[in-house]
Every structure is written in C-alpha cells, then in structure tokens.
Amino acid sequence: MRVSKRVQQIPASPTLAIDAKAKALIAQGVDVVSFGTGEPDFVTPKPICDAVVRAMEAGQTKYTAVGGTAELKAAIRGYYEPRLGFAYSDAEIIASCGGKHSLYNLFLALLDPGDEVILPAPFWVSYPVQIEMAGGLPVIVHGRPEDDFVPSIEALDAVVTERTRAIIINNPSNPTGAFWDTDQLRPIAAWLERHPNIVVISDAIYEALVFDGLAYTELLTLAPSLRDRYVLVSGSSKSFAMTGWRLGYTLAPRELVAAMTNLQSQSTSNPSSIVQAGAAEGLRQGDTLIAPMRARFAERRDLALSLLQEIPGVVVPRPRGAFYLFPDFSAYLGRSYDGFEVKTDVDLASYLLERARVAVVPGTPFGAPGFLRLSYATSEERITTGIRRIAAALQAP
Ligand code: PMP
Ligand code: GLU
Question: Based on the structure, what is the number of domains in the chain?
Fold first, then answer.
C-alpha cells in the first residue's frame, strides 16, 4: 500500500524503537538491562491515582473543553505563578495529549514552509522530525561538552537568518542531562532581546529534575520583555512519573494558543478527562510529590557516573538535571569486538544490546555521533549490572 510522501521520510522515534527492541528481548526471557527509553521507573504517586479514580467515580468521563478543564488550567496557573512572578490566563494555556503532542501542535501552528528553527545540539530526537513535518527547517547549532553544550553567542550569530522563526531551549536537556543555570542563560536571554523576531520555545519538561540543590530558572524571568513571543511547553510525564497517562501543556500568547486549540479541536480533541484531574492534583501538590523521586534520581546519577568514569577512555560530564548520562564513547569506535564490527555509535549500541544485553540509545539521532545516551531511571542494582556489562563488553578481544 502506498503511503503519503509526507510520511515516507519519517523515521520511527529511535528512543521508542530501542525500547521496543529491549522489551521484545525481555519478553523472550532475555535478561536485558534497559538504559534506553527516558521514563521514570517509579509508579505514579498515589494522590494522583486517587484523584483519577475520584474523577472517574464522579462521572468526569465525557469530553472536556478542547484545551483542558478549568480545574487543570487553574492548577497549571497555580504551579507557574510563583515561578514566573505573574499568572497566565486560561486563554494562554492549552493542555494536550503529552508534551510531544504539545510540541507537534505548536510547530504546526507556528511554522510556515521554509521557516527556520534553531536547535542547539545535542537535541531530543523528535524536534527535527516534528519541525520538518510542519514544513520548517531545523538549523543545528553546536555547543561544547565542557560548556554544558550551551551555544556561544558567536555560534548563534552564525546561524541566525531572516528566516529564523524560533529557537528551542530544552533545559535540563534530553539527551545530555545538562542544566543551564542563570549565569549560562543570561547571555542567551540578552541575545534574544536583540532579535525581536525569534519565538522562544522553552521545553521545560525536566524543570523539576534539577539536582545539587540548584534551582531551575525559566529564561523568561531573566527577560520579561520576551513574554509576547515566549512559549513554555511542559507536562506531567517526567516530574510526576506519568509517561503513560499522556498529559502535556503549553503556556503561550493567546493568538498562538487559540490556533493550537483550533488545530487540536480537529485532531485529538481534549486530553483524557480523568488524566486531567490527576495532573491537576499533581501540580497542586507539586514538590511534595516530586522531591522524593528527585532525591532518588540524584543518588542514581552519582552511582551511574562513578561506574562509567571507571571505564578508561570514556568521557562523561557530570549532568545536573533530568535522568540521562551522555558519555563520549568515541575512543571505542573503529574496531571489532569478538568479530562484531563497531564503526559508529549506532554499531556500538547494537553490539551492546546483542552481546552485552544492555539497551542504550546511540548519539547520532541526537546530533552527537560518538556518544551514547543512558537513562538511569532504573534501580541501583540494574545500573550496577548494566554498566559492568558495558565495561566487560568493551574488553572483548
Ligand atoms: N520533550 C523532551 C525533551 C522529552 O524528552 C520528552 C520525552 N519524550 C518530551 C518532550 C515529551 O514527553 P511526553 O510526550 O511524554 O510528555
Ligand atoms: N523522552 C523519552 C526519551 O527520549 C521518551 C521516548 C520519546 O518519546 O522519545 O527516551
């Protein structure tokens, strides 16, 4: 059957593909350690599940307003107002079926064919594909690992054109776990103030997962004049361990929210009614629910980091957020292991899955060849077993 030209070029999400492969092996009884997909291993906190059950029992099982219930929008407003110092109105908020869906709606509502979107690398795999599906052009800008991959002002100047429509800031970052603090954000905020036509897309989905006692700062608070071209995307998946429930949201100028809401009214309609009730409860309880998970993630980061640092030649920065490590494995490329040819990071990930039974995501689809991404959102025992397996597999003759 012939499929449209539009979808012929779309690759499957590599993060989800690795997860599917690992799950298939596990289903066959193979003991795979999965550092593949980025999702918390914790169960959704009980107060959220209880709120979903209550909503179900109260008959909140019908269509809701397309962009979300008044209850959810109030909870989103309440969560962000202290962080931002001002309140978004209902007309400036839209809830969607996951952050991925929020971003997809956003690109469709924002981009015209040929519009360029600046994408700091390494970047989450779905950004370039979604931008292209909306007719836009991703324009990659590289930062250095020793600078937490923050792009320099010179690098930004070098890629900006009259077609630049937007820039994506994903802080903390998937795949690197890098957290950009206020000092690192300030020059970018000042640069954006000098470029009045650029829309700022802040993907803050890991905003609550920042370690070492550091505080997340929304770039908008450093440059409040950006508000009429600032788009904040986030969701419940990572902060509240709600990946399967599918709830994301966007705070943005009302014209954009209205366009996204019209688009959503013709595609998915509202996100699940009962999930909205759960997400609202999560946002109201906020850090009370998140803090215990954040503490566990920080301990696991330390464990995974120390084990990886023991592998000679692997260069791994200390990430301050999210739940990813992004080591440079290029010292291990360009040779064969036990007859398995490993030229690239993609080969290395295949080798590790097939021979060491460890699922990791290669750096190439994140715009960073030579690197591997490890999601350490798994138990301490699995982290130790998995990284020891990697170390052993790299010793193979
Ligand atoms: N943005 C980033 C950077 C992510 O890592 C993810 C997780 N896949 C998302 C958005 C979307 O997550 P979800 O659709 O589960 O809300
Ligand atoms: N964000 C996660 C990841 O990068 C979930 C999978 C996906 O949606 O890409 O692994």
Answer: 2
In angstroms, the CA 322 to CA 60 distance is 33
Residue where one domain finishes, among candidates 285, 309, 342? 285
**In this structure, what are the phi and psi dihedrals at residue 137, rounded to the nearest 5 degrees?**
-120, 120
Rounded to whole angstroms, the Cα distance separating 266 from 274 reads 21
- What global pTM score does this model have? 0.96
Distance 193 CA to ligand 2 centre (A): 31
Q: What is the CATH number of the domain that holds 12?
A: 3.90.1150.10
Q: Whose CA is nearest to atom 9 of ligand 2?
A: 15
Torsion angles phi and psi, residue 140, rounded to 5 = -85, 135
Annotate 93-117 with b (16+ C-beta within 10 A) or e (fewer). bbbbbbbbbbbbbbbbbbbeeebbb
> What is the best residue among 124, 176, 378 to mutate for testing ligand 2's pocket, by most ligand atoms within 8 Å of CB?
124
Ligand 1 center from residue 100 Cα (angstroms): 5
Domain termination site, one of 250, 285, 320: 285
Phi-psi region of 168 (alpha: psi -120 to 50; beta: other; left: phi over 0): beta
Cα distance between residue 135 and residue 111, in whole Å:
7
Q: Domain with 168 in it: what CATH number?
A: 3.40.640.10
**pLDDT tier at 234 (50, 70, 90 boundaries)?**
very high
**For residue 18, pLDDT beyond 90:** no
Percent of the chain with pLDDT over 90: 94
The tokens for 133 are 């599906």
Q: Provide mean pLDDT across the span 246-275.
A: 98
Same domain, 312 and 211: no
Domain, as residue range, for 245: 60-285
Question: Is the shortest distance between the CB of 239 and ligand 1 below 6 Å?
Answer: no
Q: Which residues line ligand 2 (CB under 6 A)?
A: 13, 15-16, 37-39, 100, 124-126, 174
Pair 203, 83 in one domain: yes
| Cα-to-centroid distance, 125 and ligand 1 (Å) | 10
